[in-house]
Backbone:
């Protein structure tokens, strides 16, 4: 309930609030959604996406938390969608973000990318913060060795190889070739 309320409020109003800082209605809804997100964090914990990002900033201290999460979000959630561990939840999250006709789990990725594009953050790249392809395995090993506890909140276990694959899928494709 709290997660859906947060997604409804943030997902549907973040771009509006960013485009017009004087839009009090949008800003109130963002604040409400953020409050519910905080409740979820207090009661539960974060998923391994945050730990994957923390490993990135452990080696690249100029990487803002939100930027790192955005960079890996599409690959991270696609990994779980491809595992079919919570298909209905992804559909419901896409609907909460405003995609009323969402019917398949990948609709969540479509809604997520649209939100990132609407907020002008879809083009953030790891390489912009000095992260290189040759260190992705080091990042994955670091996260599993130092923050493995956060992986308990995931719907299925992520291996070091899964973490490397998520990082690689998040890396700009033209730089991977």
Residues:
């Amino acid at each position: 309930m709290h997660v859906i309320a947060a997604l409804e409020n943030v997902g549907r109003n973040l771009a509006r609030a960013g485009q017009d800082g004087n839009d009090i209605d949008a800003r109130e809804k963002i604040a409400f959604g953020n409050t519910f997100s905080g409740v979820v964090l207090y009661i539960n914990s974060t998923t391994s996406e945050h730990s994957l990002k923390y490993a990135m900033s452990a080696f690249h201290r100029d990487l803002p938390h939100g930027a790192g999460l955005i960079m890996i979000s599409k690959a991270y959630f696609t990994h779980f969608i491809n595992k079919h561990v919570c298909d209905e939840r992804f559909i419901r999250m896409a609907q909460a973000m405003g995609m009323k006709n969402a019917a398949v789990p990948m609709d969540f990725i479509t809604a997520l990318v649209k939100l990132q594009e609407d907020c002008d953050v879809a083009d953030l790249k790891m390489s912009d913060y000095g992260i290189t392809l040759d260190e992705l395995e080091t990042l994955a090993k670091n996260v599993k060795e130092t923050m493995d506890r956060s992986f308990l909140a995931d719907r299925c276990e992520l291996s070091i190889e899964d973490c490397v694959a998520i990082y690689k899928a998040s890396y700009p494709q033209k730089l991977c070739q």
